[in-house]
Design brief:
The protein is an alpha/beta fold. The chain has five helices and seven strands. The strands form two sheets. The chain has a five-stranded parallel sheet. Helix 4 links the parallel strand 4 (about 65-70) and strand 5 (about 95-100).
Length: about 160
């Protein structure tokens, strides 16, 4: 049985800033400190560098799911996230998107997330903090998760 990996979306798989950069200044001002409540913003984001390729390689060895949180006061974010996954990753994550504000409730071996919020730091498997000094980018994540599957590698996990 394959080990299970969950991936957060915002600032892990998708570049939140790339969506914000496509929003006009008046809208940004109207939403102030809550840009994640801007209707449609989650559909405007680009993939993080290296994310799509790394996810494909990791999925060769793991049972993979996207585990994301959607802003409660932005109902379009839920649909935007489904559309984004369908457009960019449907071959890997068709019906494998979970939206929850309680990530600690899910069972799995690894959670790749950039922040401890919404239960990420209480996840019962290993929380791998994307963007941390140990895991600064997708190359580091892929190396950590896939190295044990390389024929000449020794187990490190």
């Amino acid at each position: 049985m394959k080990k299970r990996v969950y991936f957060d979306m915002d600032n892990v798989i998708v570049d939140f800033q790339s969506g914000l950069d496509r929003v006009d200044e008046a809208t940004k001002q109207a939403y102030g400190y809550k840009p994640d409540n801007i209707p449609g913003i989650f559909g405007l984001m680009e993939p993080m560098p290296g994310a799509i390729e790394a996810l494909h390689r990791i999925a060769e060895h793991y049972d993979c799911y996207i585990l994301s949180t959607a802003p409660w006061k932005n109902p379009s974010s839920w649909a935007d996230k489904v559309r984004w996954v369908t457009e960019h990753l449907d071959d890997l994550f068709h019906k494998r998107l979970i939206i929850s504000h309680h990530k600690e409730l899910l069972n799995g071996d690894y959670l790749i997330d950039d922040r401890p919020n919404n239960g990420a730091s209480e996840f019962r498997g290993k929380w791998i903090q994307f963007g941390s000094p140990e895991f600064p980018d997708w190359a580091a994540i892929e190396d950590y998760l896939c190295k044990p599957y390389h024929p000449n590698a020794t187990m490190q996990q």
